[in-house]
């Protein structure tokens, strides 16, 4: 196998030497350039496996090279070297397509991580939505917006940029995060998902960063946090809007410094994780209301991905139904029932507040209850709980508004819990609220 080749661009000979020595020790051939014009000439004539560029060069800035490479050599990963603390330039470079960034003074172990991840990036001709098995077989959707989403997943999978995935409950945000991980250079390392709304506030810091034995009552032994578990891989922060403000500060620090400090420890530990996050609430609105930190939002939202609700891609319903029915039949060891057009029509007219997860649940219930070889439109039970008719026809009868609204809330929650067999997470999805809100409301309204 031929040795990989890297182009290093910096006007400071000492830095070029440090970078070269580190990369040569990793078995990489190094070529160097002191400015943008020489770098461009070399890029034109060589197909490098990796470029590393300083941001401040005598004849321009590194962003120009990032753009140049995106156009000329889109398969060559480029990482930028930024002045310490200059997060803004690093984020701008990643938005333009840089693979990752490293700040000065260059930390050699971070440099080695970035370089080895960059060398694992596969060129795009070998990766397309057709050839990626998980994308073509498990991520169902051929409508234009889903095709664009699949292309975007493959593109961002190659970079290390933090991604924020936005979409209603049950649209497939976690699936998108898993696909970004499995199609990228970290795919052999762990993917760790955390639901930020499901961790009790008092345990959050220890869950994220770990703790030392004896650091608080109940800490009977050292514990590794989720950042450490995800080391080398991806950490997926689901429902990030649920993070309390004090944890937002700590998360920002960990993301910025790329290191963590377990509760009760004096020492910082470097970690190498890619952060993906998701939420069904509008984080930018929360930033405006001061309930989400702007600096954290800016840091995690380098690239935003929107997952469309199911009602905006009804043309995908037949393929999704086919996929889920086969999967459910396989799981239950039965022959998949046939699906008449009337079933598809009924589903396509529904508004799916719980999106794909709700579709899956509806089909599961229908298959479990129906004993026929053909699913009947009557087997498809659709929730009324989110329809606009909910409070129509209900008389307030002089009841104070607050009590009246509580009554409605209680009824709707009870209905959703009944539909999901008492599963609070699924019921929260059906109602379009977070698990944490669900837990809070159940407690407040005295629902078991
Ligand atoms: N395009 C798709 N093709 C097939 N299955 C899908 C697709 N999108 C989502 N699913 C399935 O739908 C279910 C819900 O997806 P997922 O958990 O990723 O949604 P989510 O948006 O993260 O939900 P939540 O907001 O509750 O965290 C999962 O079982 C997932 O496998």
UniProtKB/TrEMBL annotation:
CDD domains: AAA (cd00009)
Superkingdom classification of source: Bacteria
InterPro entries named among the record's database cross-references: AAA+_ATPase, AAA_lid_NorR, CheY-like_superfamily, Homeodomain-like_sf, HTH_Fis, P-loop_NTPase, Sig_transdc_resp-reg_receiver, Sigma_54_int
Domain called Sigma-54 factor interaction: residue spans: 139-368
GO terms, biological process: phosphorelay signal transduction system; regulation of DNA-templated transcription
Family annotation (PROSITE patterns): RESPONSE_REGULATORY, SIGMA54_INTERACT_1, SIGMA54_INTERACT_2, SIGMA54_INTERACT_3, SIGMA54_INTERACT_4
Gene3D superfamilies the UniProt entry points to: 1.10.8.60, 3.40.50.2300, Homeodomain-like (1.10.10.60), P-loop containing nucleotide triphosphate hydrolases (3.40.50.300)
Keywords from the named record: ATP-binding, DNA-binding, Nucleotide-binding, Phosphoprotein, Transcription, Transcription regulation
A molecular function GO annotation: sequence-specific DNA binding
SUPFAM superfamilies for this protein: CheY-like, Homeodomain-like, P-loop containing nucleoside triphosphate hydrolases
Pfam families xrefs: AAA_lid_14 (PF25601), HTH_8 (PF02954), Response_reg (PF00072), Sigma54_activat (PF00158)
Domain Response regulatory stretches: 5-119
Residue positions where 4-aspartylphosphate is found in the record: 54
PANTHER family linked: RESPONSE REGULATOR PROTEIN PILR, TRANSCRIPTIONAL REGULATORY PROTEIN
Protein name (Swiss-Prot/TrEMBL): Two-component system response regulator PilR (NtrC family)
Organism: Pleionea mediterranea
